[in-house]
Amino acid sequence: MGFGTFQPDDNPKEGVTEAVLRALEAGYRHIDTAWNYGNGEAERGVGEALRKWNGKREEFFIVTKLANPHHKPTDVEAALELSLENLGLDYGKEVDTLK
């Protein structure tokens, strides 16, 4: 079961960071996010939570999504790199597309 980070509140990064930390404490290891959840703020919040949690990268299954504006083949690589940067990760395990 995954923990979603869609629209946590008016302050997406801090709201997501706190929610994901609580989810990690509860045993979640699958976290779902997307660039378009606050224009990258949710991804940055997930990244901050993972840094604060200080677990091993292999323990987590992070899913992000390629937003509609980034579906053109020429935009995909840059969009994925931006998401990885926002998340503070050097690789991802799954990327979905939003339609």
UniProtKB/TrEMBL annotation:
Gene it is expressed from: AKR1C2
Keyword annotations of the record: Oxidoreductase
Gene3D superfamilies: NADP-dependent oxidoreductase domain (3.20.20.100)
Top-level division of the source organism's lineage: Eukaryota
Organism, scientific name: Beauveria bassiana
Protein name per Swiss-Prot or TrEMBL: Aldo-keto reductase family 1 member C2
A GO term, aspect molecular function: oxidoreductase activity
SUPFAM superfamilies reported for this sequence: NAD(P)-linked oxidoreductase
KW Oxidoreductase (keyword) present: yes
Pfam families: Aldo_ket_red
Keyword Oxidoreductase attached: yes
Matches recorded under InterPro entries: AKR, NAD(P)_OxRdtase_dom_sf, NADP_OxRdtase_dom
Domain NADP-dependent oxidoreductase: 1-91
Coiled-coil stretches: none
